[in-house]
Amino acid sequence: MNFDDENVPPENLPETLIRDRTDSSMHFRKKIPVGILGATGCVGQKLIELLKKHPWFEITALTGSEKSQGKSYKDAVNWMQTTLLPEEIGKIKISATEPNIPCKIVFSAVSSDVAGEIESKFASHGYAVISLASAHRMDADVPLLVPEVNADHLKLIDTQKTKKSGKGGFIVAKPNCAVAGLVLALRPLALEFGLEKVHVVTMQSSSGAGIPGVPSLALLDNIIPYIEGEEEKVEIEPQKILGELKIDQIEPYKLTISASCNRVPVTEGHFEVCSIKLKEKASISDIKRAWREFFPPIQELKLPSSPASILHYFEEKDFPQPKLHRDLEKGMGVSIGRLRPCPLFDYKFDILSHNMVRGASGGAILMAELLVKNGYIFW
Amino acid sequence: MNFDDENVPPENLPETLIRDRTDSSMHFRKKIPVGILGATGCVGQKLIELLKKHPWFEITALTGSEKSQGKSYKDAVNWMQTTLLPEEIGKIKISATEPNIPCKIVFSAVSSDVAGEIESKFASHGYAVISLASAHRMDADVPLLVPEVNADHLKLIDTQKTKKSGKGGFIVAKPNCAVAGLVLALRPLALEFGLEKVHVVTMQSSSGAGIPGVPSLALLDNIIPYIEGEEEKVEIEPQKILGELKIDQIEPYKLTISASCNRVPVTEGHFEVCSIKLKEKASISDIKRAWREFFPPIQELKLPSSPASILHYFEEKDFPQPKLHRDLEKGMGVSIGRLRPCPLFDYKFDILSHNMVRGASGGAILMAELLVKNGYIFW
Amino acid sequence: MNFDDENVPPENLPETLIRDRTDSSMHFRKKIPVGILGATGCVGQKLIELLKKHPWFEITALTGSEKSQGKSYKDAVNWMQTTLLPEEIGKIKISATEPNIPCKIVFSAVSSDVAGEIESKFASHGYAVISLASAHRMDADVPLLVPEVNADHLKLIDTQKTKKSGKGGFIVAKPNCAVAGLVLALRPLALEFGLEKVHVVTMQSSSGAGIPGVPSLALLDNIIPYIEGEEEKVEIEPQKILGELKIDQIEPYKLTISASCNRVPVTEGHFEVCSIKLKEKASISDIKRAWREFFPPIQELKLPSSPASILHYFEEKDFPQPKLHRDLEKGMGVSIGRLRPCPLFDYKFDILSHNMVRGASGGAILMAELLVKNGYIFW
Amino acid sequence: MNFDDENVPPENLPETLIRDRTDSSMHFRKKIPVGILGATGCVGQKLIELLKKHPWFEITALTGSEKSQGKSYKDAVNWMQTTLLPEEIGKIKISATEPNIPCKIVFSAVSSDVAGEIESKFASHGYAVISLASAHRMDADVPLLVPEVNADHLKLIDTQKTKKSGKGGFIVAKPNCAVAGLVLALRPLALEFGLEKVHVVTMQSSSGAGIPGVPSLALLDNIIPYIEGEEEKVEIEPQKILGELKIDQIEPYKLTISASCNRVPVTEGHFEVCSIKLKEKASISDIKRAWREFFPPIQELKLPSSPASILHYFEEKDFPQPKLHRDLEKGMGVSIGRLRPCPLFDYKFDILSHNMVRGASGGAILMAELLVKNGYIFW
To answer: Contact D223/A271, CB-based, under 8 Å?
Structure first.
């Protein structure tokens, strides 16, 4: 994308984009306009909640289904967040999900069955697309990004054909909500000791299925031992994320994962019971140290959505717990506990992360921040 | 019971109806064929569960939406009952909801927006329609039946025009699920002391909204203080049910009700907090006695679905409770507790009843049994 | 604020109290030392969470039961808050609950059966006691305080005998957790239109019972229609709070309340269904206006724990809801909704407030702030 | 045990034991008297519920803690079952837990910390002790019994020293509640294909912890990833149960198990996610066949508490589920589903069983029935 002089494609960018270009200190005088595709759903709502006071970004466009279009967001949405909908955002008119909305970055929270086409279209029209859907995750030229793990994969953007075509748009994908926390806990171990096998059983919260999602009658006092497509995602996405960038493609990390995914009557927070086999010997204190010292380069950028501390290891015998720890670091932390030997692998431990923040909207915003900081988005 | 020769409309009745007509002792050698309209929903499923071993009735027809029609019930339904779907019922082919299905009685569990027309059509084609929807409840010539309260209202059937036309079909309506338990608790008090005012706050279970009903994300760890149309129903249906049959219409019982209806994260059982003002003075022991001695005439019929004891008063200070008492009398009992003076009315107390059994499918089956026993259904 | 020389009882105040006395602008260079009696329980934990970054107060003493005494707080507590226990607070040694702890204000979160005696003892030793227990609430000379409602009742402090004795200690009581929200919603109506009758049915959250409180097996998928002593409290505390200070005593507000209190499977937030009868006629818009314009004098003090807006009226038909709105204004707001005519009284509406914040720890801290600001606490 | 003539020890056996000894057809004219040690707890209550209409057994003694002794059971218990407490059982006076109670069999539901001594004492006084506690499970001469798996282990009884001493009493232990279902699902696979490794992650219901158990505030909207001592039990009990009786001791089955045990907000039913490695190759259909054809010898005895079908395999992609299937076979069935290849082992699948019935009280009663049928209990 070329923003050198004139470039404000798509052309209908608002006045907010006319800004002083000399400010290189990230203290933008005007904020970067962002749009949300599929803004009335759970993920869209959470994006709005997290973006409403964002220091860099300003919501300038919200899109929705046909029956919402033309309505004000306030009238179109069934707002279910725990903070009030800001008045000025409530007044935004819902647009059609077409690549003519006045912004530079779009967060795509449209449903995965239509996301593939929509996101490609936005990218080909010059938008930076942060995808929260699964459609493009495994595309060879799309980075599957967990900013603290594989920021270097962003180089794949240069290989995307829309990028190459001069239009400048591109797609970056956020992984599955159960994968984000898992990969963060695994990353320091893969780096230090190497990983061979991961056995993971998830207990995923209701919010992961959105609205309407799972009926209350089906989930109250119950467990539903199946989430469509989830186990497949958890078994293949980590290898790509942990993989190595070789010139213009990712060589997946060699790792066998077995995942069993379950829905439990918890509102927020995905809990995962892991057993791992390492390539090299490591003691319990080695592993705790690896987690404690995990400080990827992105941490030095002090991005607005970065947690102060990414991984929290709890020594308490019954921690972490979804209700108590999902909101650590404003939902961007990953909590780990119960590290102990596994009779069948090397070790077992538990992971908790906030599926709506770290695993979805918060993770996506951190991706956008990294893209801006790394110069992939100009304005 | 009268088995007039001509009395086998509609004409496509199955072989099960060719039976020995001499058996007048209610020990039918062949069971009465019944159909369920809207059989794949929650209420339909519960009807099947309760009818599957019914001594009098045999399910011979199940209807469903277009996308289910032609499929076997097993393939069409997402069976969510706690007993297994009987194999022979699983094999029944789903029919269109048209008045040509091979049975005499239909239980209508179609959604209330289409129920009005469908039920009228079935009645006009000679079917006995037991309606679990709200469409016809307040029709002047439709009995709104709680068998233990107003069995005499069945005389209204004779005034229904399809009945008068010679076709023989008719509609009998089951009240709202929160009304059934309430009216049973109020009936003995209305009879003995007279009722002037009822203030009721409900805490209704998730199953009352069916599937998909309330999303789990909306109801887990939450209360939803609104159920569409519910307060209006609770405020007007009891007067009709408690009303007096005057020749060919019901004179509503004079009673002012204020209802506040709430959804709570409970799977089954509607809980109601009541305050009442009586017309005549009554002591606490008078009221308990009235409840204890409540023995309406229907109890002498010993119908298959009648509870041995209709009302259970608990002396425990913290009873009744949905989880503990909803299944009393196989879900057909009504539990009452905490009778004590009310500073603003005369007394307050709590009521619990099973919304899916007493308040829906079980109540409807008891209605059908009463209709058969009282000679309203011939075959 | 008056910093008289002698005013540092009890004598073992820590070095933190030696401060520059010239700073009268409320920008304390050193914070006011506070203690928490019964610090390991739910209420004590929440007090710590809310006080840990408090601009005026600093926790200098924590007391606990015999088995905790001498341990560090971290070792003694089963910390169950959603933020981490601050390290420096974790290191505080648990003291015996005796009036020799180094602080000026004590928040009493001891259990109500022992609170009466303990609180009196602390008051007689010169401490300002903010009581979260029920023991002294109805004492004639103890203010039962909701800061936005009856700040003027603090004058009662002067009548307390320990106060008069020159020791300077006194007790101020926080009302029952279900009363706090109720009284705030009622206050503007009482002021403008007068209140005659209030009928309230509560659905109270699990946290109101603390730990161990209600067993999970008893509350999951259930309602428990009884909370010991609760209905009595809800029926008498509001009259005192809304009452008028006459020289040295409170004349209770004339009002009849009927309360039915229930425990529901919700983690936090007390929900209350109210019907009211007013003394004077008022329209729906009159009432909404009264709520909207409620701006008691305390709001001008801009105390650290004061909500920006005390009452939030929601126009949405199904709001407020515990999960969505309990945290409004950091838990210090009161949410109201569904105002509509009541067939038996004048109006009915729903109230929600956070029982652990507004109804307990947050309310108590606001009381302490008001005491400081109004000059009742010297140091 | 020798009951030929004199022996009715303990001596205070009631008249119910004087019976016609000629009836060998198991149609007892009088029922066998049984006692319950620790009768007021959750497990004790469930035992009563399951025994109240038992065809063979009659409850003649209930014991409890000091504060309950001398009270009628009705007054001592906080009855929390979903059926009403039978009046005649409510009248039984609570005895001290001493080996002088009038019965032959005792079900021990006392807490595990005191169970060891108490159970030994009862055995040494001639009682047949069915232990639901963990104290004696791993004793070399105590059968750890799942009747459908290792009925032959009952021969160990002959080696128990109280047995050998001539007193005739003995102890038989029921395994951990999470083990019962697991072992039943594993048994046919161990028999046919051999088992090498089992990786199991449990999601256990609240009732497993009894009352008070886990506080509701701790478990609502949460997962607690720790249950004291549970993982150790799940990792060692199956080997004993699946082991082979060698003359007078059990040779444990060679099998490595890794267990991670979690508490989830479900009322009843333990759910387990398993991965297994077999000794011999087996296809998915081989395994399903092994489960389907599992018909251990005990099934031919048609004991009163035996399920008609022990194992239910569900082909539905999201079954079994605790709420839907825990009550199959009156809680004595074990539900299995989702059999599929595991990338790290051979296969993975899910198991569900009712922890209070199959895993506790129901399993214990089936044990007692087997003991009677096999001649270990005379009367």
So the answer is: yes
